[in-house]
Design goal:
Layout lengths: L1 E10 L5 H15 L5 E6 L5 E9 H12 L4 E12 L10 E4 L5 H7 L12 H13 L12
Parallel strand pairs: 2-5
Antiparallel strand pairs: 1-3, 1-4, 2-3
This protein binds flavin mononucleotide (FMN).
Amino acid sequence: MLVRLLYASRAVDTIGAALIDAIIAESHAHNGDHGITGVLCAYPQGDVFMQALEGARNEVNRLYQNIVRDPRHTQVTLLDYAEISERAFANWRMGRVDLNRVNLSTILRYSERAQLDPFSLPGKRALALLLELSTTMSVVGRGEPLK
Ligand SMILES: Cc1cc2nc3c(=O)[nH]c(=O)nc-3n(C[C@H](O)[C@H](O)[C@H](O)COP(=O)(O)O)c2cc1C
């Protein structure tokens, strides 16, 4: 049985390329072995993360509990959790979205301001934005298939 979990959090330090690279590398190492796919959105030079995790319920739940304890971020806030019949991010062990590079009108369509604030966005709307980003080439990643 598959689930998709969406959360937002705030980085403890300003988000730099090295932090994102480290998280993506950890995700690639772990997620392939555990059947997890997803997308990590961040504002480089800002502090907002938003991440979707998909996979088996026990795997997603275990990873989320691990992520919540990660000292590199705080205010980890569950936005949405649902059983799904198919993955939306099957191409990405952990794709990444640079929110500074996303078309502002795309963000504006879903939110009050052109700066994404997932903490004030209804979970389903945040998810709709992510799904749109996944179909508009805004998600980048190595895209190796799952083992
Ligand atoms: C914003 C954020 C997103 C993360 N996403 C993942 C992920 O998708 N997969 C993963 O294995 N670790 C992810 N991590 C790292 C985990 O929190 C944890 O450090 C990693 O799984 C290693 O855990 P371990 O040392 O207990 O093995 C993320 C961390 C942060 C701060």
